[in-house]
């Protein structure tokens, strides 16, 4: 019985890794779609998000069934509850990748991103994808040091986000209001996506150490929170 | 034992209502702070968010302790798991109110909101506060009809959000890029705050009916999702 139980726990972990893989791929593809004004690619990202949503619902149902059937305590209970939280982070990350793709679709055949910001948005997209790949690795390895690394990597996202705002505020900005609005939202989507990847990693830290990591995982308490507004 | 248990369940519910009250007040005060460029009020909203964070941590700890000690099943289990999710929605709403207040602080002594958008931002702030007040009422009354009403009320937020973008995109916009960026982020904060209030209400629907309402509570699947991008 306990064996079947731990097999189910493992398969929930595998489901989380699969979700992380899907949303990591989604943010990378969405970034390509918006930089290349690739409508087909954007549509594929938008359509693929339902798979992430289905995976989350499935994981949640199984986690709750596990709580009901097995009534885990201590570490096992922490694992199940933390899985519920991680699946919510990952589902939300999928939404944010979808927002990027929807913006690409909205502006097609134009691109929402002016040439002089391609490099910054590309960096934000690549960093977001790397952060999620690391988060998946953290779920697999339960490596606390790697998990803590993500927070440091996320500082780079905050710097990119700030650079984006500085570029927007520059008097030489010539791309008009609509593009400024698009770029502002894009920056916010990438920054939030990164926050969720960090959050997933932090929840693993909580899982392994029992230390409550909310201060480190919520916007409200994060040093980077300030950068969600123009800085 | 079961009595002490249900008392604890009730007190968790009361904690959620208190969180909803605090974040509802926070978004109202933050809106006043940004419209009046009231630094003291903004600071008070920013400082008060720690109380929301503390409440969430306390509720989570108690919910998990309850799972461990009482090992609830069926409806009782659903209540505890749903409480964990609602507390996350409410904590996040508090962050968003704090973001509005931080923007007020960032632009002080100026106001981030130009005169011709005061009415729209005021409406968004008031609607956000009303939605959260209704969400609290739904937690107390478990009134499914009222919960479903929130989704309808949220359509008004989507319309306001769209009106905001249309105003931004208007050729007559004379407030420059920085203000366009501020207004874009503000619109996003209010729209997300409203989403979380609706999400809280939807989770009560799930609690009462057992029907999984995620499609209705996540950006990805919400009809309003499109309005998170300029429309």
From TrEMBL, chains A, B:
Keywords: Cytoplasm, Phosphate transport, Transport. SUPFAM superfamilies: PhoU-like. InterPro entries: PhoU, PhoU-like_sf, PhoU_dom. It is found in: Cytoplasm. This is Phosphate-specific transport system accessory protein PhoU. GO terms for biological process: intracellular phosphate ion homeostasis; negative regulation of phosphate metabolic process; phosphate ion transport. Residues 16-103, 121-204 form the PhoU domain. Coiled coil: none annotated. GO terms for cellular component: cytoplasm. The keyword NADP does not apply. Plays a role in the regulation of phosphate uptake. Its main location: cytoplasm. Homodimer. Belongs to the PhoU family.
């Amino acid at each position: 019985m306990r064996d079947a139980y731990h097999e189910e726990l493992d398969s929930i972990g595998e489901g989380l890794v699969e979700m992380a893989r899907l949303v990591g791929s989604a943010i990378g593809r969405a970034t390509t779609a918006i930089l290349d004004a690739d409508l087909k690619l954007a549509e594929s990202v938008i359509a693929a998000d339902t798979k992430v949503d289905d995976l989350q619902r499935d994981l949640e149902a199984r986690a709750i069934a596990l709580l009901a059937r097995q009534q885990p305590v201590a570490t096992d209970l922490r694992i199940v509850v933390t899985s519920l939280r991680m699946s919510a982070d990952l589902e939300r990350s999928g939404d944010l990748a979808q927002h990027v793709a929807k913006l690409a679709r909205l502006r097609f055949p134009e691109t929402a991103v002016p040439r002089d910001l391609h490099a910054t948005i590309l960096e934000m997209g690549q960093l977001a994808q790397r952060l999620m790949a690391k988060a998946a690795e953290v779920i697999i390895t339960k490596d606390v040091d790697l998990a803590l690394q993500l927070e440091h990597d996320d500082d780079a996202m905050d710097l990119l986000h700030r650079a984006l705002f500085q570029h927007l505020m520059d008097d030489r900005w010539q791309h008009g209001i609509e593009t400024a609005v698009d770029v502002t939202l894009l920056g916010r989507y990438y920054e939030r996506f990164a926050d969720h990847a960090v959050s997933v990693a932090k929840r693993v830290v909580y899982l392994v150490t029992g230390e409550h990591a909310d201060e480190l995982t919520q916007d409200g308490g994060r040093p980077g929170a300030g950068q969600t507004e123009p800085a």
